[in-house]
Sequence to fold (718 residues):
Amino acid sequence: MDLFLQQLIGGIASGSMFAILALGIVLIYRSTGTLNFAQGQMAMFSMFVAWSAMSTGMGFWPAVLLTLLSALAMGALVEWLIVRRVEGTSDLNSLIVAMGLFLIFDGLALYIWGPLPKSFGPFSFFSGGASCVGGVCIGRLNLGILVVSIVTTVLLYLLFQCTRFGLALRATALNRLASRLVGIPVGRMLSTGWGLGTAVGAIAGILAAQSLGLDIRTMFFVVLFALAAAVLGGLDSPVGAVVGGLIIGVVKNLAGTYTPSSVGSIDLAVAFAVIVLVLMVRPNGIFGRPVRMRV
Amino acid sequence: MTLSGKAWTWVVAGLLAVMFLGTACVEGVGEFPAPVEEAPVPGVTDDEVVLGTHTSLTGPVAVYSQIALAINAYFEYVNETKGGVNGRTIKFLIEDDGYSPPKTVDLVRKLVEEDRIFALVNGFGTPTHLQVVDYLQENGVPDLFVATGATEWVKDPEARPMVFGSIPNYVGEGIILGQHIAETYPGLKLGLMSQNDDFGADGMTGIRRGVGDALDIVGEETHEVLDVDLASQVDRLHAAGVDVIAIWATPQHFATAVKHARLNLNWDVPFVLSLVSANELTVLLAGPEVIEGTVSLGYLKSAFEIDDPDVAKHHKLVQDYMGGENGNTLTLYGQYIGELVEESLRRAGRDLTREGLIEAAESITDFWCSICLGPVNTSPTDHDPVQGGFLVRAEGGRWVRFGDLVTYEGVLPGDMMVEDLTR
Fold:
């Protein structure tokens, strides 16, 4: 039982990391319909920005703020400069652009910061001893990740559901032509979608760095799970991204524990098998809306 | 004008006849004494020898690019200060395969067939180099000092005479660390963690042989390269009541395991780890506090030993020839490879042939590179240059040596047992 609870806590913590990155992917997908493979490398880039800021002597929270603002600008700029050029052409084009972005940010980070990992956390908010009840422990590291994830999700929810700005963002995602007709600056909303998605990705990156450390490959595999989470939850559903991330985190942990050890490391296979099963029943993901086209 | 089929036949026949006569004439010239020309040795001229490597300048493990760059820096230093080796300067071609095996195949073929390198040096990565090791054998290209500790390179020198290892192979390393575990924690419970491939399997083979029946193995966990962290594996060993963990993982993975144990579980279980993770990368990723007390193996001097004149010299070399700030474990390893290659070339003499280089590389006896902690010995049946090392323990973010030099000189990994260790 202790092990079960411990694995559950660990699964939720790593799952919330996937969830936040998946949230960024969904925000971008809703904005321009691009499945942003570069999400992880863009987040990694933001982590290095935060590291650079802190190495000039800046404190952790100011550096985070600066990083989020720069990520916002970076995402918006990418949409405005690059993604908009291929908008409305084929899905294949936007896919290739996303691949290109991956290589660009990967190469840029290597060029600017070099290949060595950087010392980045765990910061005081995330470090300190664990609190244990019986055999079950929750450490400051996991607790910090959970708290930041929840706060991020709640803030985004409020932004989308309770502000005019959020309404405009949602309207743009839903129907561009109608939005333009009622006076919403659609282009600016698309850029904002990318900016928000990138900033949320930066938060995921900073969380990931607390447990994984900061190096160019930190997000390489995290983004795979985040993409899977986004697909599982439904690519256009922010709630789905969060639920999907948590499911993947927990299933991955429990599968490793409750399958016979003679099969080796089977947890990844089980996690992805669950995704395939869910998608067989609900092809648009758990919370995804089926795409219907009026002809 | 158009020619009929028959006419074409005549034209072609005529041309052939002229060509035949032409060759006959040229051969006739051969009556004069022609200079005796041996087949030229690829990559060797009067004043230069060309070597090449494949490594990861980009991609997920780009951090290891430091090794090839340090080897190059050392060769430049040798060229400038000693005029090269035996009167030939060394030219080093570095190709970037991004840790992608198919790319390695293309690039190594290019190095051998287009750039005509004399020898391949320190090809990086087990999955990548596995794709080219037999190609190099078949083409008789020396494949010196591969940059991994897989037993593949050193287990059968007769089957693969061209290839040499460079770091203590993982089985040998595992036996030394296993013996340390058996002596330090007898009667306790051991947990194993390893990457689910040859790297992890070789290490665990060694650990088991080294531990023998001194400890109960109560948990065995494996992980994939794809895994983000090793938290759930550590959770399971924690629940199994493990007293000490032996782990074979990359710095990234090991960092997550030790962080999870210390920060999320308040668990101060001792970790014994492969030297692959006992370096600055792990310190940067995990932080110096959480790795405190972890034990591994060292076979080269460390970058922090700045009072040692040879280490100080290394830092200077990195600054002067690599444009870097300071050396680290990877650049030190690069210099060790550079010195090994220099020694092999020196032994091969002025009349360089590929066979001669292999003979030279397998006849090294009691060679101490400037930063080595033990002697390098090779023979036709032993292509494993370094066999042994010192135990090291993390203190304040540095792995510090303790105990005596442990070696298993000349024993192949297949038969090696704990009895082969000598101090």
In short: The first strand of chain A starts at residue 130 and ends at 133. Residues 53 and 63 of chain A are 6 Å apart (CA to CA).
